[in-house]
Amino acid sequence: HQVLRVLPKSDEELQKVQELQALEHLQLDFWLAPRGLGLPVDIRVPFPSLQAVKAHLEASGVSYSIMIEDVQALVDEEQTEMLRSSRQLPLNTNTFNYEAYHTLDEIYNFMDMLVAENPNLVSKLEIGRSTENRPLYVLKFSTGGTKRPAIWIDTGIHSREWVTQASGVWFAKKIVQDHANREGVASILETMDIFLEIITNPDGFAFTQTSNRLWRKTRSKHSGSICVGVDPNRNWDAGFGEAGASGNPCTETYHGPYPNSEPEVKSIVDFVKSHGNIKAFVSIHSYSQLLLYPYGYTTTPVPDQQELHEVSAKAVAALSSLYGTKYEYGSIITTIYRASGGTIDWTYNQGIKYSFTFELRDTGRYGFLLPAKQIVPTAEETWLALKVIMEHARDNPY
Amino acid sequence: SLAMELPPSHFSAARAAAVAVGYLRYLRGGPGRGLELRALRRARRQDIDDVGHKYYLELELEDVLDKDRTVSCTAEVLYHLGSRGTAPDVQVTVQGELSSTEEADEEFYHRIRSLEKELVAENIPDSHGNVPPELEPIHLLAWVASGYVIWQNSTENTKFHLAQVKHVKQVKRSDEDLQFDFVVLLHEMVSQEVLPWEVTVLWHPQHGARVPQHS
């Protein structure tokens, strides 16, 4: 169900809207009935009637806007909210539920708790603001030093890929635990820093919770189009606008009006450039179970192709060792498709040799709607692959 | 020309495999059987002059309701030259037997037939990936329906997966078939678009599933 808002500006328009009330078979539910000129009319329209209603309005030149794109999602959210408020909020990151999907606010709260519990290891940086003015937070894990060689990990750049943000939360906790137990990545933290951006596209993430679970892009509006959003993984300055991205703002792979037009992208670009010492960059997506290295925008292999291929083989073997999850690996363009303006093509061209993209579980059975009980197994196995990459970066300085 | 070996990680092999799996789901899937690709073992491609591109695949499949068992099969997927409006030709040979679903099918059939009101459901799975157990057979029938749509609409430049069942409505019939009208959301990997598709499925425990002509 969608909720449409109509603002009748003439008697003719008002009449057209009133006509809709008489069409019982459409099963329309007027949240705000037609009352007079200039007063909004809100209509809940069941899915099967959508096309007819829109056609009726458009044929008479009556303009409408989509107030709520998916009523069911709101209802679900409401019910979930009600359940949540009757449960106890997590008091610390030990009682936080890693086996569930969380809201934007819950994840921001998690970050603050993690920092508060580990002030000597974790700090929270704001690297910019989204289109809708949400903060873009990066967690920094560091045992000291000044601008040590660093590893960057981001999750949630495509907002519908929910297992990635959820895995990012798990990674954050895991890093802290390893450090406390002097195992795992503790040795990496002796000489390197880790930067983790868990919610790389907060506007999109919020939209997946309130309106459209399958929203991918940012929520920017660029002049000249009624369509919203730019694909943040086509907006980077590497083969920008070439084959492998779309110039149509109404498509899912719209590259945007120019490179780094999206604050979500520009903030990372600025961060990487000003840091200057990032040695490994991993951008995490779902789904398909792939480990990918550059390029996506050209068939020319990267100079470090052989080494990246070997590291990928090792990382994938480590991942599989836990639950038998099968991954394929290779360059973006040979393994998945041609894609221009992509994140790791840009980071590689900046000189960050160990640039990788993951596509996490699954291979299509649930796709973007991965059951919450698979969050922790996915994060656990992915972490083994990430450690291979981090250790290789540490052991092969450049 | 000769068939050329492809690495199983190559995107063209993966796309052809998705077509084969869609076709097989349409042919052999049902409320008690959902086939998933476990691994693509081998892929070869042959360019046939004036005809099109043919892929020879060796696949390992699993039944999502019986994950310990896998079954091997071979498939041939021929994408026609031009590909305008013509579905790829697909042949699949399953090695060995798929486990019987007779009992589950009969149970499902009688459960639905004895419903007082026609079944209606939405958002399968929901946002968190949940499928209520009593709706899992409907979910699997949606795989059958979308398998048909995927087979019919695939080209070498597409890779479709069922993203979600947006809406399903049972339609009571005077004959013995069960009828379900689906609105499915298909995720197309190359363009990344999510496309709503209306498709009707008729199903009977002995006759299997079919998508009527004008669906």
From TrEMBL, chain A:
InterPro entries: CARBOXYPEPT_ZN_1, CARBOXYPEPT_ZN_2, CPA_M14_CPD, M14A-like_propep, M14A_act_pep, Peptidase_M14. It comes from the Eukaryota. One of its GO terms (biological process) is proteolysis. Keywords: Carboxypeptidase, Disulfide bond, Hydrolase, Metal-binding, Metalloprotease, Protease, Secreted, Signal, Zinc, Zymogen. Its cofactor is Zn(2+). SUPFAM superfamilies: Protease propeptides/inhibitors, Zn-dependent exopeptidases. It catalyses: Release of a C-terminal amino acid, but little or no action with -Asp, -Glu, -Arg, -Lys or -Pro. GO terms for cellular component: extracellular space. Belongs to the peptidase M14 family. This is Carboxypeptidase A1. The lineage of its organism: Eukaryota, Metazoa, Chordata, Craniata, Vertebrata.
TrEMBL record, chain B:
GO terms for molecular function: metalloendopeptidase inhibitor activity. It comes from Chaetops frenatus (Rufous rock-jumper). GO terms for cellular component: extracellular space. SUPFAM superfamilies: Cystatin/monellin. The lineage of its organism: Eukaryota, Metazoa, Chordata, Craniata, Vertebrata. This is LXN protein. Keywords: Protease inhibitor, Repeat. Residues 2-102, 120-215 form the Cystatin LXN-type domain. Pfam families: LXN (PF06907). Belongs to the protease inhibitor I47 (latexin) family.
